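Q: Here's a chain of 445 amino acids. Please give me its 3D structure as tokens.
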Amino acid sequence: MDKQRDFVLRTIEERGIKFIRLWFTDVIGTLKSVAIAPAEVEGAFAEGIGFDGSAIEGLTRSYEADVLAQPDPTTFQILPWRGEIDPTARMFCDITTPDGQPAVADPRNVLKRTLARAGERGFTFYTHPEVEFYLLKSAQVGEQGPQPVDSAGYFDNVPGGTAHDFRRRSVRMLEDLGISVEFSHHEAGPGQNEIDLRYADALTTADNIMTFRTVIKEVAIEQGVYATFMPKPFSQHPGSGMHTHMSLFEGDSNAFYEAGAEYQLSTIGRQFIAGLLRHAPEITAVTNQFVNSYKRLWGGDEAPSFVTWGHNNRSALVRVPLYKPNKGNSSRVEYRAIDSAANPYLAFSLMLAAGLKGIEEGYELPTEAEDNVWGMSDAERRALGYKQLPASLDHALSIMEDSELVAETLGEQVFNYVLLNKRQEWKAYRAQVTPFELRSNLEIL
């Protein structure tokens, strides 16, 4: 760590960095930032930067307000969009109490705690997110609703299209920040794009997702368009998910791989999926944390609504992707419910905790869903024992409230704050009179 700190201090001097932004997130996953001068960095490493945590969503209670932001030197990167005028860098921070203890409500610390639990069992947790988002002409919403930048579809190549330049610029900027991109392409909705980040350990991936969202927003501003990670901005077009591929490694060996097993999937892999399935309804209020998230889950267009798993079955909640011959380390499972607006630190914590629970308790994996789950009738799904994901944020919160797994993983303070914050959101949503009601009822009632 000392070597890394020395590298940061030396780079700041050599590159003429004028500002260093210290980044962290609140419980909802909003990026927070405080800028310090180069002269303050050494002191920040030694003592942290103090601030009033009670002013940040869910971070502390008012009687324990003082906290410190401790920069993590391994996350130091120069921000490419700032250019050569007043060069600026950033570091992610861990939030601590004045006596140096990790703040219990710091989302990054919640993930670190869960990763440490996996580490005690000899596991390292890797994730690979496929992040979808929409590009709009503007943030302004007129009578016709949001306006996408194009009318293209899945994998479309649009000569001279906005999205080409946008993705190229975004990918280059992400690479400049040390974030490797695997794929980028136009998605199924008009103006909808997907950029897939390369596999990394879950903490690095969560940091990368927070950086990714910022890069996408910055490039959009630069190019005169607007980017949104809203789960379902259009009722008639697909929502934006963040399908996440996951694997556990024991040293250099993929714990999900077993040569000769069905789908080359080991017992550990099968138990991990069983844990995800059993606890999926409990964690949905975090992986899908907004009222709007449930418009995506229940709006069709390949979003999973039922608790099933399958091999290469895109209607399933958990998918076991096609195995690559002679590539045991590529064995993985894909969780398809999580959307692009989730707090990645908390969501990854719960996805990992659910999988670990399956391993620890030896859960049995239910029968694979081989058919299109969306195409079945309710009676057929009931006969096969397919449970559904929560149908609304209110429904998800009522299930989460009774979950020991979620309470233990998030910790009391984060658990209670998520419930409080999201109940307020549901209450505000429930109280409104929508255009749908006015169109349906005003003239005939």
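Q: Can you summarize the key feature?
A: Residues 260 and 266 are 9 Å apart (CA to CA).
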